[in-house]
Design a protein that fits this description.
One of its GO terms (molecular function) is UDP-glucose 4-epimerase activity. With 350 residues, this protein is α/β, with parallel strands linked by helices. The chain has eleven helices and 13 strands. Bound molecules: nicotinamide-adenine-dinucleotide (NAD) and uridine-5'-diphosphate-4-deoxy-4-fluoro-alpha-D-galactose.
């Protein structure tokens, strides 16, 4: 059966990575149902997905306003449609908020996911692609990070990812017919090349690139650079930034792998580029792409931050046949195209 006949449920499909992935799924011929409660997204994002794929493919997209914590919502959905697989993005992801309010994270991320597994099992849909994170490597002792490293949680958000990886492994072990792929994203940035989709954080951004973008459009005065005394080439911390369109394509590769591989079990793959970029290098690349100066303030290190994190990409390349295409230059170009055309995100004005 080709993509044409497959129907995929995308939880959190109105969010940053979800919208970009849904566009690629529809372009690849899948039918898609999104479930989202708009906790961290807006209906306009889904409208723009429809606009980008056009009226014909748009007919293959359904949207359901629902919360994964409400099992009845899920039951209703699964009783109406037969899903071939689920891509599970829905979750809360702000590290600082998870430290201040861990119960919110355990409730949303754990209960929501456990409900999803229950209903999937009941309706015999046992193929899952799960959004994990490089956060499960904690402060890696060695780099690049390889999938079989020991895992560690640094905060309640990271603990939800670690627990959910363990839960996935346990479920698959007990019920071998499950096929589960855990995708560990490194640092997703960039936007759809059209400039119509991108990341639209609520409040002051926690992550580097959305923060830089808001400085560039004048919403924030300067970037705080957290730590300039790391043992790295310029003293700032190093991360593996990955273009969100490469990530989206990584999900399609994972989905195809699930359909094609009976004995995939529960397998984790890194989605990164394998290249490390420092905070100051990222600032310089963004300045070049935008033509804007980004004023910086050197600040103390942010607690819990690792010095250097980047992915080993070998396993995903070999087994999924997927490799990131874009570098930092394209990431900043597309980020700026989105940011300059949508300075207030999906809202037309503040
Ligand atoms: P996002 O917040 O933009 O998207 C998540 C979506 O899930 C949002 O639209 C939100 O409204 C929805 N959602 C949350 N809880 C829900 C619930 N209970 N029921 C229904 N919908 C719900 O985040 P994103 O950046 O697109 O991230 C997607 C996934 O990838 C998350 O699980 C996140 O933890 C993981 N991840 C993200 C990053 C990153 O830097 N963006 C890195 C590693 C992993
Ligand atoms: N940084 C700054 N100034 C900022 C924001 C970030 O200097 O205003 C620095 C950080 O100190 C870090 C680098 O930029 O050295 C990247 O920071 P991000 O917050 O963008 O991303 P992290 O690598 O710290 O990872 C965080 C969480 C992860 C999560 C990831 C993606 O710690 O758990 O974001 O959401 F997976």
């Amino acid at each position: 059966m080709g993509s044409q006949e497959k129907t995929v449920l995308v939880t959190g499909g109105a969010g940053f990575i979800g919208t970009h992935t849904v566009v690629q799924l529809l372009n690849d011929g899948f039918r898609v149902s999104i479930i989202d409660n708009f906790d961290n997204s807006v209906p306009e994002a889904v409208d723009r997905v429809r606009e980008l794929v056009g009226p014909e493919l748009s007919e293959r997209l359904e949207f359901h306003l629902a919360d994964l914590r409400n099992k009845q919502d899920l039951e209703d959905l699964f009783s109406q449609t037969s899903f071939d697989a689920v891509i599970h993005f829905a979750g809360l992801k702000a590290v600082g908020e998870s430290v201040a309010n861990p119960r919110r994270y355990f409730d949303n991320n754990l209960i929501g996911t456990i409900n999803l597994y229950e209903v999937m099992a009941k309706y015999n849909c046992k193929k899952m692609v799960f959004s994990s994170s490089a956060t499960v490597y904690g402060q890696p002792e060695k780099i690049p990070c390889v999938e079989d490293f020991q895992l560690m949680a640094m905060n309640p958000y990271g603990r939800t990812k670690l627990f959910l990886e363990e839960i996935a492994r346990d479920i698959q072990k007990a019920e071998p017919e499950w096929r589960i792929i855990l995708l560990r994203y490194f640092n997703p940035v960039g936007a759809h090349e059209s400039g119509r989709l991108g990341e639209d954080p609520k409040g002051i951004p926690n992550n580097l690139i959305p923060y830089i973008q808001q400085v560039a459009v004048g919403r924030l005065p300067e970037l705080n650079v957290y730590g300039h005394d790391y043992p790295t080439r310029d003293g700032t911390a190093i991360r593996d930034y990955i273009h969100v369109m490469d990530l989206a394509d990584g999900h399609i590769a994972a989905l195809k792998k699930l359909f094609a591989t009976e004995d995939i079990g529960c397998t984790a793959y890194n989605l990164g580029t394998g290249c490390g970029t420092s905070v100051l290098e990222m600032v310089a690349a963004f300045e070049k792409a935008s033509g804007k100066e980004i004023p910086i303030k050197l600040c103390p290190r942010r607690p819990g931050d690792a010095t250097e994190v980047y992915a080993s990409t070998e396993k995903a390349e070999k087994e999924l046949g997927w490799k990131a295409k874009y570098g930092v230059e394209e990431m900043c170009r597309d980020q700026w195209n989105w940011g300059s055309n949508n300075p207030w995100g999906y809202l037309s004005e503040p």
